[in-house]
Amino acid sequence: MSEAFGTPPVGSLRSPVMIAAFEGWNDAGDAATSAVEQLGLVWDAAPLAELDPEGFYDFQVSRPTVKLIEGVTRTIEWPTTRLSACRLPAAAQDVILVHGIEPNFRWKAFCQELLDIALAHEVSSVITLGALLADVPHTRPVQVSGSAYDQPTAERLGLTSSRYEGPTGISGVFQDACVQVGIPALSFWASVPHYVSQAPSPKATLALLHRVEEVLDIEVPLGGLPEQADEWEVEVSQIAAEDEEISEYIKALEERDEADEPLKPASGESIAAEFERYLRRRGPKPGDSRR
Prior knowledge:
By secondary structure, this protein is of the alpha/beta class.
């Protein structure tokens, strides 16, 4: 069961669009959840509801945290999925943000709880945001793939039909659940270079926010994200320049990108092999006394 905070009341939002991102498998470099956090910050989001985590999460995997209030009172914060509402006077619609954690259990029930909230607030459409590790160079514009609920919308947004078959995450499951009950649903996935997958990934976050702008047809305040994205690219380039093997690899990715070769998600084997090469390069050198 979800816990509603009572503000705003059901029916008070104007044909809201629900924008959702989930931590975990769906969120390389924290790019997607960072996008939702940015939207909540600039749009002054108000708490709307949160899902009861009991039954959805393995608390030995996603542990609750203890926090101190004024250094005295201890409070427990449980890992869960939270929803917030954003009123946008300058836009034709309001927005409901979903910042979630991919559940460990009962995915169908999890999606149903989100759908119940969406239907109660008469959500007009859903946008799920995600990020994936891929063989892409950090020096090029971020590739954003995705899918839409119908072909005309896909063509309008420049989305190519996905031919992917294989494991999916909660974002894909929730998108399908929305379509099944008649709620139009889109998904956008930003490609994060697998050789620099650690968070944050501001360049990928920025690319996702540009897509949100495109769909909602309003300007999204970006704050310092453009500068952070530029600094991130410069920093990664500087680090890569110190490693000949990585530099050659990035150059090969750039050449492939110029040839317009199709994007390929990085396989687990390729990422593992790259990590092993990294460890070997950072391993003890002959005559090195460090342990």
